[in-house]
Amino acid sequence: MSKLVIAVDDSMSIRETVRLTLQSAGYEVMTAEDGLIGYNLCQKQKADLIVTDLNMPNLDGIQLIARLRALPQYKFTPILMLTTESQEEKKVAGKKAGATGWIVKPFDPARFVAVIQKVCPH
User: Fold this and answer.
1) What would the pLDDT profile of 1-37 be if each residue is shown by its tens digit?
2) Closest by Cα among 64, 46, 90, 78 to 8
3) Most buried in the list 5, 31, 38, 115, measured by CB within 10 Å?
């Protein structure tokens, strides 16, 4: 059975790139276009891994991570930030909220899959 990844990003092209990249690596992928929709989706579907952007409408990535970490089913689920932001203070805030790791966009698909397989092997 393939692992479910929920990708949350307000950019349709990024959502599609993540979906296609991870599906080709054998993952099942569901997407959401902002943090609030992503949070609601995560409550309906138990993801094995969450990939989220930082800057999004309604609920940003750090707020999304903090809310997910408050739910018992997501206490230990890997959550990766996928963002154009690379400032140290943003990384610290993400880590404090409970992010497992940080990937800067644009990403190399092969390296992206390698990171995903490391935190969520199947």
Assistant:
1) 789 999 999 999 999 999 999 999 999 999 999 999 9
2) 64
3) 38
